[in-house]
């Protein structure tokens, strides 16, 4: 045991609040009374109601005390202590005592750390903790069940403790120990025989597996040779199949090319038809405008001729309405012919795809309009002559 461990032990005992000042020279020689007092005080810190023997006058009492203390710490703290070193009660015992004092000191420091962190000021986010509500309830129910089971166990501890102590302190019967050892020996022999049998079976199984592996390897080699032979042999229909495949590939390429050409030509045809339709509509609109302009020009010329005739009175009185109508219709016919003649000279036949029926209907309607206008002009002129007379 080093000087540092002695100093550490004395400081830890002082921090734990031991009522007596421990000197570093106290363990230079065996001091069983001090060691027993420290062990008893540490046991009381873990469980104040513990019932441990305190008589250490004889060697039997000392041995019983050390055994009781060791069993107590094993059960309560799960810390194993060396009985021999504790019984020596010198520097070697300080190392065993440090195991218990460090455990108590760590618990005390952890408690102070939690108090310093200030858990009372911690703000709990209820929204975040809502997802853990189910887990919290399950843990709470488990804690309740474990607490009830622990309470029942503690109630039974008062009854079981004397029985346990009596069993621990009871002297061992040599006959029972011998019988137990014989039983264990027989059981160990049976297990050894069973293990030997398994080893023998493993050897037989290994031999069988080796035989199976060798057989599988032979099958694999034979099948590999057969595969290589089949790869080298060409079927009789393979050449014909390759020729047909190449021919089919060429036909497919030709089919794709023709389909593309047909699609392109159809698209071009649609564009040409649409352009021709637009051109025909434009020519029809132009023809209608020219006809309307010619109608207006002919009406103006007809009015000028009627107003400029020197003998308009006699002509109007002696000339019947039929002559006027015929004149007007002939003028309209000649006008239409001249107009369509100009169109035929300026434009191609393909651009003017007008039907004959439309031409005749248009000319008849123009003649009727011209005749009706001439009759109205004649009647107006006659009214003016009568008013002059």
The whole-angstrom Rg is: 66 Å
Shape: elongated
Main sheet attributes: strand count, strand direction, barrel closure? none
| Total count of helical runs of at least 4 residues | 12
The helix fraction, in percent, is: over 70%
Strand content: under 5%
Structural class comes to mainly alpha
Low-confidence stretches: 114-123, 311-356
What order do the SSEs take from the amino end to the carboxyl end, as H and E? HHHHHHHHHHHH
How far apart the termini lie comes to 166 Å
Keywords: Cell projection, Cilium, Cilium biogenesis/degradation, Coiled coil
Pfam families: Cluap1
Subcellular location: Cell projection, Cilium
Biased composition (Acidic residues): 346-360
């Amino acid at each position: 045991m080093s000087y540092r461990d002695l100093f550490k032990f004395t400081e830890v005992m002082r921090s734990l609040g031991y009522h007596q000042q421990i000197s570093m020279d106290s363990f230079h020689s065996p001091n069983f009374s001090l060691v027993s007092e420290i062990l008893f005080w540490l046991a009381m810190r873990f469980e104040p109601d513990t019932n441990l023997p305190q008589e250490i006058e004889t060697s039997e009492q000392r041995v019983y005390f050390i055994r009781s203390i060791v069993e107590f710490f094993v059960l309560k703290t799960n810390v194993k202590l060396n009985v021999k070193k504790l019984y020596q009660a010198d520097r070697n015992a300080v190392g065993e005592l440090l195991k218990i004092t460090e455990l108590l000191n760590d618990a005390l420091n952890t408690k102070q750390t939690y108090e310093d962190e200030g858990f009372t000021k911690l703000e709990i986010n209820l929204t975040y903790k809502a997802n853990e509500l189910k887990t919290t309830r399950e843990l709470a129910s488990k804690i309740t069940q474990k607490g009830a089971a622990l309470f029942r166990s503690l109630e039974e501890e008062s009854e079981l403790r004397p029985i346990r102590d009596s069993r621990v302190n009871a002297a061992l019967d040599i006959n029972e120990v011998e019988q137990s050892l014989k039983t264990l020996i027989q059981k160990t022999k049976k297990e050894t025989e069973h293990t030997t049998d398994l080893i023998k079976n493993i050897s037989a199984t290994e031999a069988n597996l080796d035989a199976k592996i060798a057989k599988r390897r032979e099958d694999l080699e034979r099948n590999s040779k057969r595969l290589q032979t089949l790869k080298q042999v060409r079927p009789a229909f393979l050449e014909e199949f390759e020729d047909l495949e190449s021919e089919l590939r060429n036909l497919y390429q030709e089919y794709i090319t023709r389909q593309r050409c047909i699609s392109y030509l159809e698209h071009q045809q649609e564009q040409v038809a649409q352009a021709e339709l637009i051109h025909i509509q434009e020519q029809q609109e132009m023809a209608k405008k020219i006809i309307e302009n010619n109608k207006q020009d002919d009406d103006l010329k007809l009015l000028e001729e009627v107003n400029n005739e020197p003998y308009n009175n006699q002509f109007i009185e002696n000339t019947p309405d039929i002559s006027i109508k015929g004149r007007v219709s002939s003028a309209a016919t000649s006008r239409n012919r001249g107009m369509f003649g100009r169109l035929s000279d300026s434009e191609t036949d393909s651009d003017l795809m007008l039907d004959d029926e439309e031409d005749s209907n248009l000319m008849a309607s123009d003649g009727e309009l011209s005749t009706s206008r001439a009759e109205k002009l004649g009647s107006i002129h006659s009214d003016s002559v009568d008013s002059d007379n």
